[in-house]
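User: Okay, second chain of the day. Same drill as before: sequence in, C-alpha cells out.
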Amino acid sequence: MSELFDAIDALVASRSPLPPPAERKRLRQAHGLTLEEVATTLDVRRATVGAWESGKTEPRPPQREPYAHLLKQLARLYPSPTATEGGTPAATPAATAPPVPSAVVEVAPSAPVAAVAAPVPASPVPAPAATPPSPRTAPRPARGSRRPGAPRATAAGSPAPAGSGAYAHGPLLVLDADDERQVTGYGTGGLLLDVPARSLPALVEWALAEARVGAEKLHASGKDADPLLVLTAAACGRYGLPAALSDAERSAGRLREGHKVIKLLERAGWKLTRRGLGPWARVYRPVTGGRRQCVQLCIPSWNALDGRSWGHAAELGPAELARVLGVYAQRVMTPVGSSAVSGLELMTALNPPTRASEPDQDGKRHSEHRPGSLGTEPVDPAPCEAIDGHPVLADLPRFHIRGPQERLFEEAYDWARDLTDAECMQPHLVGIDVNLAFGAAANGAIVGLDSPPEHVTRPVFDPAVSGSWLVDLSHVDLNRVKFAKKWRGLEGDLLPSPFTPTGERPEGPAWYATPTVAYAVELGYDVAPVEAWVRPRSGRFLDGWYKRLRDAYVGTMADLKVAEKLPPGEFLEAMDGYKRRDPELGIVVDAVKMTVKGGIGKLQEKARGGGWVPGQAWPALARPTWRPDIRATVISRARINMHRKMIALAAATGRYPVAVLSDCAVYTADGPSPLDVLPYDQDGKTVPGSFRLGVSPGMVKHEGTQDVLWGVGVLEQLGGDGKTANLARYIKTGEVTARDTGE
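Assistant: Same drill. C-alpha cells below.
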C-alpha cells in the first residue's frame, strides 16, 4: 500500500504549481541568485534554468518539486506588486529587518536552496565604500554590444567561475555602459558585477578596494597580477575618455597631456607610467608600507588588441571578450600590454630577479638576488651583439655598415631556390609549418644570466658555454655531412646553409651564437674560433616560460578537439577548420603563438619615437630583459632545428625543400597532403629526427598546398626566380598581395 502512496506523491510532484516564466525570473533576481547557482543546486545545466524562465521548456521530475519549493519561498519574501494592489501587503521578513543593500550581498556559486531564507530587498541601493560587490547574471542591454548568452563556466576552454578570496572575481573585468550610464563589469565564468564608480579615479580605487579582481603570483618570489580593467567604447564615454584617439594621439600612442581625465587622476594622487594613458595604461601610486597599488587599463577601441595578435577580439561583445582574455589570463598571464610585452613580462613573472633572504639577527628579511635570474640591473651586450645605434657602438662612424665579422646576425630563414626539372614534373607544392618553433627552441637553451660578457682571444670552442664566436664556417660542405653519427652524401646545393638566414654559404669568418657553431661540429667539421664573448654565468632561464606557453597552446588546442598523440591522418582531420569549432578559443591560440614570437623579439627592442639620436640610450635598454644575446641563441636554435629536420628527411627520402621562411618549409609532392611529403609507415612512425605531424611544439602541421603551376606563376608575377621570391610566404592562401622586396 505504501508504494501506492509514494506513486501518488510522485504524481502530485510532477504537477507542482509554478508561477509564470517572467515571475520565476523576477523572484530569482530579487534575491540576487544567479542562474548558475540555481542550476548547480538543482543539478541541471544553466541553460535549462534559463529555458524555464523564458517559457521555452517546463521543469520535469525530479527537479520540478524542489524548484517549485524554491519559488514558493522566494514569493513569500518578494510578493508580486500586482498581488498586493488595493490591499495591505503581506508582512515579509524584510519589513521588520534593517534593509541590506543588494549590491553588497555576495552569493556563493554553489549556494543551496536553503540560502533563500536570508531576506534581501529587491530594490538596490548604492554600495558603501570598502564592501565587495555582488555577482549577478541579468545584464542590461549594452550599447553597441550583444547581450551575453549563457555564462561559459562549464564550456570547454573557459575560465573557472568566481570563487573566494582576495581575487574571488577573477583576473579582469570588461566594463560596458548602457544608455542610462550604468556600468557593468563582465568577468570570467559568466560573472557580472555592478560598477558604482562614476569617475576614472573612483574606478581605480574601486578596483583595488572592492572589486576583488586580480591573480595570484606565478612564482613564490614574484608578485600578484594587478587587476585588469578593459573599457569598451561605451565605458570610455562614461568615464570621460574618447571612444577613439585622434590621429596625433594615435601617432604618439597616448591621450594628450593635460586631458581632463589625466588631471583628475593626478589630483587624486594617481600616476601614469612613461607610456601615459594609452591603449594599455598602468595607473599606480608609489608603494607604501610594502603595499602595491596598481591597476592595468586596456582600451580595445584605441587599438589595444592588435588584430595581428588578437584577431577580431576587439569586435566581440563584452561577455565574449571577457572569456577570451580570461582564458589567456588563466593559461598564460593577465595581459599587461601587447602580446609581445606580455611575453616579455611572463619571463620575469616566472623567473623573478629577487627573493626574500633568510632572517637577519633582528629577524628581518631583505630582498636579495635570486640565482638563475637576470637580476635587477641591465647588462651591456658585447659590441658584436649590439644593434646599430647602441651606445657601446658610439665610437663607430655614423654611416658605418657592419659586416659579418663585426656583427652577430642570427635571424630566421628566408631562403628559396629554383625548382629542379624533376620537381617541376610533380604537381603539388606542400607547405609544412613548425608549431611554436621559437618556443621549442627556447626549451633547454643555455643562455647568459646576469653577468656581463667577457672577451676571449683564440678560445677553444665549448658547446656548453653561452656566447658569441668569431669563426670561419665556410669549409662546412653540405654534400657530405655526419648525421646520426654516420657520414651521408647529400645534394648540398638543394639545401640552405644552416649558418646564414639567407641560406647562402658563408665566405669567411663571421660571428655566430653557440648553437650555430655547435651544429657545425655536429655535422662533422672542426672549428677554430678567432675570438669570443662568453658569459661565465649561464642557465636555462627560459625553460619555465616555454612550459607555461606550451601548456597554454596544447591545452587550448585540446579544447578545440586537436589532441596530442593523434595518428597522422587523424591529426590532419582534426586540424581541418579547427578554429571554426570555437572562434573565441581560436583567438586565444593565435595570441599564445604571438606571445612566444613577440616575447623573443622584445629581447632586442629597437629605439622608437622621434628625438632619438644614434649612440644614445633608449628606454628599453634600462630593462634587464633587453638581451639580444638571448634572442640570438633562441633564433639560432630554431634555425638549426629546422635544418636538422630537413637533412634527416633528405637523407632518408631524397626530398629537398624548395623554400623556407622562418618555421615554414615547402616541398614538391605527387599529392596535396603532408603525408605525401613525410614518410609514415603503417605503425605511424616516420624518419627519426625529421618532421613529425602533431600539435606539440616542434612538430608540424599543414600550412597549405598549391599547384606547381601556381608557383611558376608567382615567380613570373614577382619578376624573379626562386632566389628572389619565397613561395613559403604565399603557400597558405595562394594570394600574392605585393611584390616581395626581401624586407
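The first helix runs from residue 2 to 13.

User: Thanks, on to the next one.
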